[in-house]
Known about the structure:
- This protein has 206 residues and is α+β, with helices and mostly antiparallel strands.
- It has a single domain (24-205), classed as Lipocalin (Beta Barrel), CATH 2.40.128.590.
- The chain is built from three helices and twelve strands; from the N terminus they run ααβαβββββββββββ.
- It has a ten-stranded antiparallel barrel with strand order 1-2-3-4-5-7-8-9-10-12.
- A hairpin with a 2-residue loop joins strand 7 and strand 8 (148-152).
- The longest helix is centred in the N-terminal third of the chain and has 21 residues, at 2-22.
- The termini are far apart.
Amino acid sequence: MIKNRSFTILIFLLISGFSFSQNLSKELLSLARQMEGNYNTTGQSKLDTGYFDIRLHMKRIWNNRTDGIWFYVEQAAAKSQDKPYRQRVYRLNEVGYNLFESEIFEIKDPLRFVGQWKNNNAWADHGDDILISKTGCAVQLKKVGKNTYSGSTDSKKCFSGWRGAKYATSIITIIKSGMITWDRGFDENDNYVWGVEKSGYFFKKE
């Protein structure tokens, strides 16, 4: 009886573990590997002075979790990398065939994590209770070709109060050599108030 019960428990754990691992599909893991890394806009800033030289770091955290793939994201001007102007956590999930969603979270007391993209254990003692969801700011990404993904936020749902904006939009394209991000803010009358006007920033993967 004990042997049969133990065998049943073992089978249940194996099945559960299999189902658990299926949440992180091959396609999701492939996109995550492509996204993780260090980026810069040095080349673009040299060609066009309308663009700043920026550093972007995307570090996977909470690797054992299967409720999505989590990243710590830090962005700063090249000349002041110790003072990032953006620190976020992203949660990447597969939501349909060749369709992915990146949820965006703010961090409580973010300055304690400055530069921690270099540290593999920086988030080990922290959970998602220190995160604040940016409702309406999730980015939908669709695979449109080999190593190529494209998407955006949903209409006017991402609230922004920066520089007189009412809402913000993000358009993202991910390619093998990097990513193009185009963030802009608009007021309540849909007038452009911040962000580059011509096209997005090209972050070259290092």
